[in-house]
Amino acid sequence: MSQTTQTTQAETAEPITIRLSNGKTLNFASNISQEADEIPIIDVSGIYSDKFEDRQAVAEKIREASHRIGFFYVINHGIDPKHAEVVFEQAKRFFSLPVEKKMEVYTGLVPNEFVGYHPMEHYSRTAAKQKDLSEAFNWAYSAAEDPEAIDKDEPGISIWPSDLDGFREGLYGYHTPLLQFARKLTQIFALALHLPENAFDEYTKKPEAGMRILHYPPQEHSVDDQNGIGAHTDFECFTIVTQDDSAGLEVLSKSGTWIKANPVPGSFVVNIADCFMRQTNDFFVSTVHRVVNKSGRERYSAPFFWGFDRKMLLEPVPTCVSETNPAKYPVMTAGEYYKFRANKAKDDEL
Ligand SMILES: O=C(O)CCC(=O)C(=O)O
Ligand SMILES: [Fe+2]
Q: How far, in Å, CA of 114 to CA of 112, rounded?
């Protein structure tokens, strides 16, 4: 619904054009979001079954959702909700620190990498009048925290605030089960692409597995003038988002309508990201999404970004290319693509 505030005009019901940071230009019908049931809820308990047919049945649901909308909820994922609760507590603790303290781990201190603190109202992803009303802290894969790591001594690249006991431990307490879940889900994605279940195993031994906590104060400006996080696509293969109960995540459907991805208790939202879109030659949709926090409350979320080993080539998946459907994207390594996107996102922040 359109909502007028004292600070800005009402939202536009007219077509809009924006340029995304993955280089694509996007036209959509209206900036006003709607309630719709286009985002499926998939029970993924079958991924842990010993029976191949159970795993394949989940894979077919994921195939349909990844192709049609690029977004789905997963339920019965098996991860204890207490880990997310700890992460949200740690997020509240970190974001309530004085800004000078948070700036000790400013992301600008680590060139080429997407780790550390991204300050409030620092940039606007879609050149909206007001800068995006959110702040974030990102951390990266750590071999020491990966039970299946090949080399546990390999150093991590994250930066951590001093004097915040339990912060790092609380965040990895959730990152590690998500990492194991994402590895399993990658096998299901292989099935979804009609490949052998182990087709991507080599790609995920040393994955790109960054995570972030985000804080969105309630916004008063209209969605035409400000977003919590502006319209964008994610860089990697897929993202697993844990959101609190404040709502605000919105997804752009293929027909150009903003759809609310309202919180579903106990679920994660999984969305396809750009590397998977490239590798599947657009069979999977890397869906544009944004956050607009009109709840009147603080919103917290914790996305986990899952991508392939930086050394590996992002070659097109054989079941997604043919003579009549040739590869659309140049092949590069996962690391080259990551650095290109991380630097671009960070430049946009300056
Ligand atoms: O906060 C959310 O729900 C989503 C955040 C997001 O899209 C991102 O950080 O890429
Ligand atoms: Fe995102």
A: 7
Q: Is the dihedral of CA 40, 278, 338, 200 positive or negative?
A: positive
Contacts of 224 (CB under 8 A, 6+ apart): 8, 9, 11, 12, 31, 128, 129
Whole-number average pLDDT of the chain: 91
CA 207 to centroid of ligand 1, rounded, Å: 20
The H-or-E segment that residue 176 falls in is helix 167-192
What distance in angstroms lies between residue 344's CA and the mean position of ligand 2's atoms?
A: 15
Task: Report pTM.
Answer: 0.93
Show Cβ contacts of residue 54 under 8 Å, excluding neighbours closer than 6 positions: 46, 47
Domain count, the chain: 1
Whether 324 contacts 281, CB under 8 Å: no
Q: Report ipTM for this prediction.
A: 0.99
By the CB criterion, residues less than 5 angstroms from ion ligand 2 are 234
Could you tell me the residue range of the domain that residue 247 belongs to?
4-346
CATH number of the domain enclosing 240: 2.60.120.330
> CB of 234 closer than 6 A to ligand 1?
yes
Ligand 1 in contact with 289 (CB < 6 A)?
yes
CB 208 within 8 A of CB 338: yes
